[in-house]
Design goal:
By secondary structure, the protein is mainly α. Helix content is about 45%, strand content about 10%.
Length: about 230
């Protein structure tokens, strides 16, 4: 039942996601914007446009992220820490921490004005809670994200804004191609993560889920169970 606004750098994938939203909710006024989370001005312009179209912003899902060389499908041999280029460290840490910070900061004026809102940054069990070799930048970014969000969550209580992070296990996305060895129990589907985000966003106003770690279990849900 939501009006969905999809943002990202890849216009083709934005259009695909908007089409999916239209297929599931034809009555919704869905839109897409090409935005880089490392450009605060682009984010502010996007938020201004969304606020102008809908008059409110109820939920921000901050899911942009980078895994760097350790999680890249383009390189078979990851960088050891002794070889890690500074530019790769900066790309991962900036995307995973600054990108979320810029996104939250951009929507806060609207949510503070309306005295309500939900913000759900996507962290990761692999990095935030489970150490990965050859992934120092990724681990630093995901643990740093948790510290930043915990502090912000306390601050935003006074504005009736609920900020809660989700920590998915390994999810079947393009970034994770070639890394199935990290998931001996299987990969989660993106829909499984999305379903849980919807659950978190629709909790009673006085309820908070603190750092939920979600992971695959057993054989997974059947298609019938997923649509039930």
């Amino acid at each position: 039942g939501a009006h969905v606004v999809v943002t990202g750098r890849n216009t083709e994938r934005i259009e695909q996601s908007v089409d999916i939203a239209r297929g599931r909710n034809p009555e919704g006024a869905h839109q897409g914007y090409a935005v880089d989370v490392l450009d605060p001005e682009e984010l502010r312009n996007m938020v201004e446009a969304v606020d102008g179209s809908y008059g409110r912003i109820d939920l921000l899902v901050a899911s942009a992220g980078s895994g760097g060389g350790r999680l890249s499908r383009d390189r078979q041999v990851p960088f050891a820490t002794v070889q890690l280029p500074l530019e790769e460290w900066e790309e991962v840490v900036n995307t995973n921490i600054l990108g979320v910070f810029h996104s939250i900061q951009a929507v806060l004026p609207v949510m503070i004005r309306q005295k309500r809102g939900n913000i759900i940054p996507v962290s990761s069990s692999r990095g935030a809670t489970i150490a990965l070799p050859y992934a120092a930048a990724y681990g630093a970014s995901k643990r740093g994200l948790m510290g930043m969000v915990h502090s912000m969550a306390e601050e935003l209580l006074q504005h009736n804004i609920r900020l809660q992070t989700i920590l998915p296990d390994v999810v079947e996305t393009p970034m994770m191609e070639g890394t199935r060895n990290l998931a001996p129990h299987g990969l989660m589907k993106p829909d499984d993560v999305a379903d849980f985000i919807v659950y978190m966003a629709t909790l009673p106003p006085d309820t908070l889920v603190v750092d939920p770690l979600i992971a695959p279990f057993g054989g997974g849900r059947t298609e019938q169970e997923k649509t039930a």
